[in-house]
Design a protein that fits this description.
Layout lengths: L7 H7 L1 H9 L18 H5 L3 E6 L1 H18 L3 E5 H4 L10 E7 L5 H12 L3 E6 L5 H5 L2 E4 L12 H21 L5 H22 L2 H10 L4 E6 L3 H16 L2 E6 L16 E5 L7 H16 L3 E7 L11 E5 L7 H19 L18
Parallel strand pairs: 1-2, 1-3, 3-4, 4-5, 6-7, 6-8, 8-9, 9-10
Helix pairs in contact: 2-8, 2-9, 4-8, 4-11, 9-13, 10-13, 11-13
Bound molecules: 5-amino-5-deoxy-1-O-phosphono-D-mannitol.
């Protein structure tokens, strides 16, 4: 049932290209438009939206954080991302013209269910992004966009994460399209790149052997830090979450720009720091900033594990370990750069003798608040 893999998690990591392809299937036209008729919210509903909240827990929250960068950039609609468990307790400003996107793999997470009920009471429109047909969250939402990741058995979420990003991006592109905002060549080009992501992720999966070796090396570390900027920041949070839940190690993700505001004091001789680097093409300022962050932590003794795209030579002098991913645009990079972080967490956990698929104290679906 594990398809020849030692753990469900490894099987599910390997299924990501297929999961992405399945989530895109039927939703992109040959003219690079987005077809989301299934969403049940009318174009008029979507045109009236002036604010978006994305809510979720754990990995689903991290996918929402990635989504914010893309949706705001494409649609110019303000997006806030909030932990579902915090949302309803702080009296958020919601009304008919608010769209709440509730992200959940299981569709049964109680924190997210309670948050969506609160949103509905306040008359907001709720759209579920969910992997489980007919579960509570899509049933109680006004509309649903299913991720087609297939059943996810391992407690640690992997293929659900990448398909949630895809689904939220489709919502963003759809909104941009029907509102006629910024639906420019840039957006059409993104659709082409989306179609190429299954192959890009498959390529990353081919090169994971050195990551496995590195994982064995790191399995005795006290802590691992993760850094990123822009969409690399939620990827850092996701890498740290995976490592915490599976390896029971102290792991934290930071926005690289925050280092100097506190976290840099955690850096000591040999502390592993994983850094995802955005493409040097395009947003070069972002790239240059993170290269100097890599230098900063290395100068203080960190062991740098750098995830950078093919052809990025600027990082080479500062990387103790260099993991290459295929070239992509900044917004799509999380889909490839998260893969080595998933493999790293899985293999460190295995090296420490932990139960990879069923980490202690955790359940796949958290049905209590
Ligand atoms: O089923 P959901 O997406 O609503 O679950 C949310 C979180 O409980 C879940 O993502 C959790 O953080 C994972 N174990 C992370 O790997």
């Amino acid at each position: 049932e594990k398809g020849g893999y030692d753990y469900f998690m490894l099987k599910e990591i390997a299924e990501q290209p297929q999961a992405i392809a399945d989530t895109l299937r039927g939703r992109l036209t040959e003219h690079n438009e987005i077809a989301l008729d299934e969403v049940r919210l009318t174009d008029q509903d979507l045109r009236d939206i002036d604010k978006i909240f994305i809510i979720g827990c754990g990995t689903s929250y991290n996918a929402g954080l990635v989504g914010k960068y893309a949706i705001e950039h494409w649609t110019r609609i303000p997006v806030e991302v909030e932990l579902a468990s915090e949302f309803r307790y702080r009296d958020p400003v919601l009304d008919r013209s608010t769209l709440v996107i509730a992200i959940s793999q299981s569709g049964e997470t109680m924190d997210t269910i309670m948050a969506l009920r609160h949103a509905k009471e306040q008359k907001a429109r709720v759209l579920a992004v969910c992997n489980t047909n007919g579960s509570t969250i899509p049933r109680e939402s006004d509309g649903v966009l299913y991720t087609h990741a297939g059943p996810e058995i391992a407690v640690a979420s992997t293929k659900a994460f990448v398909t949630q990003i895809i689904a939220v991006y489709l919502v963003g592109l759809h909104l941009a399209q029907i509102r006629g905002i910024k639906y420019s060549d840039e957006v059409a080009a993104i659709v082409d790149q989306l179609k190429a992501t299954p192959d890009a992720v498959a390529e990353v999966l081919q090169t994971m052997e050195p990551v496995r070796k590195l994982a064995r090396d790191l399995s005795g570390s006290q802590q691992v830090l993760f850094l990123g900027r822009h969409v690399g920041f939620p990827v850092a949070l996701e890498g740290a979450l995976k490592l915490k839940e599976l390896a029971y190690m102290h792991a934290e993700g930071f926005a690289a720009g925050e280092l100097k505001h506190g976290p840099i004091s955690l850096i000591d001789d040999g502390v592993p720091v994983v850094i995802t680097v955005p493409s040097p093409r395009g947003r070069s300022l972002l790239h240059d900033k993170i290269v100097s962050n890599i230098q900063e932590v290395r100068a203080r003794g960190a062991r740098t594990i750098v995830i950078a795209e093919e052809g990025d030579t600027a990082v080479e002098p500062y990387a103790d370990h260099l993991i290459r991913v295929p070239r992509t645009t900044t917004l799509l990079a999380p889909l490839t750069t998260v893969v080595p972080l998933q493999v790293l967490a899985c293999e460190i956990a295995a090296a420490r003798g932990n139960d990879v698929d069923q980490p202690r104290n955790l359940a796949k679906s958290v049905t209590v608040e």
